[in-house]
Write a structure and sequence with these properties.
Length: about 230
């Protein structure tokens, strides 16, 4: 049974008549809280709240988290509880030296990864579209916006003057280190917070694990089973 079937209760909160909660949802919330309350996930006795409003950005006592989940439900697509110590098998990071020896040629590899993720030769197609159509200001569609954001992250240095990492390459490398060292969510957040504080104010270091994972996941990296 895949994760979507196994945890379908997460997004099936209310009974069909909307006059009560599904038993599977109540049982599942207890299961989630039990998992989230493992010692490595606690912060002053509190856990992250994954409700649709808090979005794993706030910490509360587990009883309050349960109330939030009852009232607001889970944040969309939170099938894997990565902010609570669970690994996401859909993100696999190749940490071989040739990928992370950051030279100009290898930085370009990240740009190629962006093109691969978008699934088309975007620049070529875009140039053809410009030749065949009038010059007008248009809001990029969702696919184009994704392309621009990823390409921007693959090209911008992590901070002004940094010549060995871009916003994207840093995030990929950090998640690789997390995977190799089996770092907890809390350790990742604290490490990134310290790095962000000690580098130039205009740095593009992710503020927490969630932001790094969100950026890298746009590349559509898949798990590699040993």
């Amino acid at each position: 049974m895949d994760i979507h079937q196994n945890r379908s209760w997460m997004y099936n909160r209310l009974m069909s008549n909307r006059r009560g909660y599904n038993d599977a949802f109540l049982k599942g919330v207890d299961e989630f809280v039990s998992f989230a309350c493992q010692e490595t996930n606690l912060s002053n006795g509190k856990i992250r709240c994954p409700c649709s409003k808090c979005k794993n950005l706030k910490f509360f006592h587990f009883e309050k988290v349960k109330v939030h989940l009852y009232k607001k439900g889970f944040i969309p697509e939170y099938w894997y509880w990565t902010c609570h110590g669970e690994s996401d098998p859909n993100i696999c990071l190749n940490t071989s030296p040739e990928v992370f020896s950051i030279e100009e040629g290898n930085l370009n590899k990240f740009e190629n990864m962006v093109y691969d993720a978008v699934g088309l030769e975007y620049e070529m197609d875009h140039d053809e579209e410009k030749d065949d159509s009038p010059s007008v200001d248009e809001t990029p569609n969702i696919e184009a916006q994704k392309f621009y954001e990823l390409l921007d992250a693959a090209q911008k240095p992590s901070w002004p003057g940094c010549n060995n990492h871009t916003e994207l390459s840093f995030a990929v490398r950090f998640l690789a280190i997390k995977s190799e060292g089996n770092m907890s969510q809390r350790s990742c957040d604290q490490t990134l917070a310290l790095m962000k504080e000690t580098h130039p104010l205009s740095n593009l270091i992710p503020k927490d694990f969630y932001k790094a994972k969100k950026l890298v996941s746009k590349l559509g990296l898949t798990a590699k089973k040993n």
